[in-house]
Specification:
The protein is α/β, with parallel strands linked by helices. It is built from 17 helices and eleven strands. It has one domain: Metal-dependent hydrolases (TIM Barrel). Helix 8 links the parallel strand 2 and strand 3. The protein binds N6-methyladenosine-5'-monophosphate. This is Adenosine deaminase-like protein.
Length: 432
């Protein structure tokens, strides 16, 4: 840096520090502001964030189907069933109960493998249009009734969980066949199979879910890169059934890491048990950690694994709504941000359809609330790469750097016209 530049950066930094409103608002990134180039001092716009390459590590397939898509699919079915769109942010009472009502509604629309494929393609398009370079999509495999139109009586015939996974794989392959032409890059996609705590009723039923997943992973080891533990946090099944069942299969997780929805509601005992089990179960990431007790947080900040950090999956809107806090200013992000080099943060959507959000808007809202700079946002994406379960994170890193150094061409209204020299076609309502 030349003398003039360093004087300029130095005086800008000093000015910012002398103005209490700027300095105090810039809670998240004083360090970054000191180190940042001049342009980094400007607040990031939503379109700048849209144009950055990003990763999504915490997205549930069913919850990521937009409300508009559900309405479209229902209308096409034409059996009179309707769906009234809603905005979670408008009324936050009984938030968690409403979330799980939404998943039930989605399940009433996605009732066969064709609908699953169509909705998966829709979700993949959505994330690619967000310039997401790596999507780690999670879902709990389901079985669908086979209708009589398909040549069966419709009695007890069900599709298999493996068919569910393979339909998702088919959608990914179809998406990939046109991704370069449509988006200018090929979004990498891997699957986490979810254990649903809400469906566990005994240790045996927990083992049944786990064993199904392990079987499917054996068939598709390149596609399924980890396990997610999710579901209604009010289902009190983790301590009595799920953890004992997971511990019984702990050998399997050394090569198949776990991410665990943790402390979505206040439950200190459960949180402690999960943290206690992290090493044994190879729980490499924690989802939400909204109500994680300080004692547990200190242990995680101190470090759990000798060979890497713990991924903390932040989902800003989801966390704000489920915690019923009025704004992101009170989000627990600052409990983690720049507090320890053992923490690998990621910013995610959780459920795009349910929370009416997208990846860029989640990062933008967080960046605005905590005055994060461009470098801060990029640093979080690099942490996400390091916590991804993808087998080749070096490849993701290279892809990220390549896309960072060749930003997409934007029209004056922020619409992305061209990526890496490839023209993009318009997608419904996504402006891409
Ligand atoms: C609000 N935060 C959350 N907390 C806990 N579990 C959640 C969740 N959001 C989604 N899920 C889990 O994901 C399933 C839907 O996707 P799939 O049908 O598996 O693709 C839900 O049924 C729930 O078990």
């Amino acid at each position: 840096m030349c003398v003039v530049q360093s004087i300029l950066v130095g005086s800008l930094t000093l000015m910012a520090k002398q103005q209490p409103d700027v300095a105090s608002q810039h809670r998240g990134s004083l360090w970054a502001m000191d180190m940042a180039p001049q342009s980094d001092l400007e607040p990031l716009t939503l379109e700048e964030i849209r144009s950055l390459p990003k990763l999504e590590l915490h997205a549930h397939l069913s919850g990521s189907i937009t409300q508009q898509k559900l309405i479209e699919m229902l209308e096409r079915r034409g059996d009179g069933a309707a769906f009234t769109p809603f905005n979670c942010k408008a009324d936050r009472s009984n938030a968690l109960a409403k979330c799980f009502d939404y998943f039930a509604k989605v399940a009433s629309v996605i009732t066969d493998l064709d609908a699953l494929k169509e909705s998966t393609l829709h979700v993949l398009d959505h994330f690619a249009a967000e310039r997401c370079i790596y999507l780690e999509l999670r879902t709990s495999p389901k079985q669908f009734k086979v209708s009589s139109q398909n040549g069966f009586d419709g009695d007890a015939k069900l599709t298999s969980k493996l068919q569910y996974l393979e339909t998702v794989r088919d959608a990914i392959q179809e998406f990939h066949s046109k991704a370069l032409q449509r988006f200018g890059f090929i979004m990498e996609v891997r699957i986490l199979l979810s254990v649903d705590r809400g469906k566990v009723t005994s240790k045996e039923s927990a083992l049944a879910q786990i064993d199904d997943i392990l079987e499917m992973q054996k068939v598709h080891p390149d596609l399924v890169v980890g396990i997610d533990v999710c579901g209604n946090p009010h289902a009190n099944t983790v301590k009595p059934y799920l953890l004992p069942a997971l511990l019984e299969r702990s050998y399997a997780f050394q090569k198949l890491p776990i991410t665990f929805h943790t402390a979505e509601i206040p439950d200190d005992e459960e949180s402690e048990l999960i943290i206690d089990s992290m090493l044994k179960l190879n729980i490499r990431r924690l989802g939400h950690v909204t109500y994680l007790p300080d004692k547990c947080r200190r242990r995680v900040l101190h470090g759990i694994f000798a060979d890497g950090g713990v991924g903390i999956e932040i989902c800003p809107t989801s966390n704000m709504i489920t915690k019923e806090i009025p704004s992101l200013d009170d989000h627990h992000f600052m409990d983690w941000w720049q507090k320890s080099d053992k923490i690998l943060l990621s910013v995610n959507t959780d459920d795009v359809g349910l929370f009416s959000c997208d990846l860029s808007s989640e990062i933008y809202d967080l960046a605005t609330a905590f005055r994060l700079s461009r470098q801060d946002v990029i640093s979080i994406q690099r942490q996400a790469i390091r916590s991804a379960f993808h087998p080749d994170t070096a490849r993701l890193s290279k892809m990220f750097d390549d896309m960072l150094s060749s930003p997409p061409k934007l029209l004056s209204n922020g619409v992305c016209l061209e990526v890496n020299g490839h023209k993009r076609q318009k997608l419904n309502g996504l402006g891409a």
